Amino acid sequence: MTHSMRMDTHSSYHDGGRRDWRDAAGHYALLPLRVFLGVTFIYAGLDKLTDSAFMKSGGAGSIGDTMRAVRDSSAIPALVDLALKNPVGFGYAIALGELAVGIGALLGLLTRLAALGGALISLSLWLTVSWASDPYYYGNDLAYLMAWLPLVLAGAPYLSLDAALRARRRQRSGGLR
Over the stretch 124-160, which tens digit does the pLDDT of each residue have? Predict the structure, then answer.
């Protein structure tokens, strides 16, 4: 007598369809990336805002000294010169930008816009602060830039405020959206 083993591993989901665990994993694949980037950028923004040495135009650990130190080795020295016109203002802009981007990514609110902001922050830091890293993969800003790109493209379609707002709009329009 032969025994058959059941091979289907499907489970029901809220959409009424049946999916296996690989579909479910693919469904939520960007969630860990979104949480990591959101928490990391919130932490980075808060770290800058609460560091008394960072928000100064000069001195050890200050944004001003950091920018002067990387000016000649950056890919775009003019960008550093622009920041050096008001290093404290630039420091606040970066910190508040990181905070906004992190909150948007973590909550999944305006996720594509937040991810674009994160990508632009990472790009500017790569072209200035970590440009001279040798080999290039020692600098983390390029990796952060690449990590933001899937969220720029896909947004946060699940477990996000964007998804909740989209579902609410769809419900109000009678399911036509």
Answer: 999 999 999 988 888 899 999 999 999 999 999 999 9
174: left (phi over 0), alpha (psi -120 to 50) or beta: left
E strand segments, 20-143:
none
Cα separation, 68 vs 88, whole angstroms: 13
Token pair listed for 95 = 């910190």
- Residues in Cβ contact with 163 at an 8 Å cutoff, skipping those fewer than 6 apart: 108, 156, 157
Distances (CA, A) of 161 to 13, 23, 158: 20, 22, 9
Q: Would you give the DSSP letter of residue 18?
A: E
pLDDT per residue as tens digits for the range 4-43: 544 444 444 455 555 688 887 887 899 999 999 999 999 9
pTM to 2 decimals?
A: 0.83
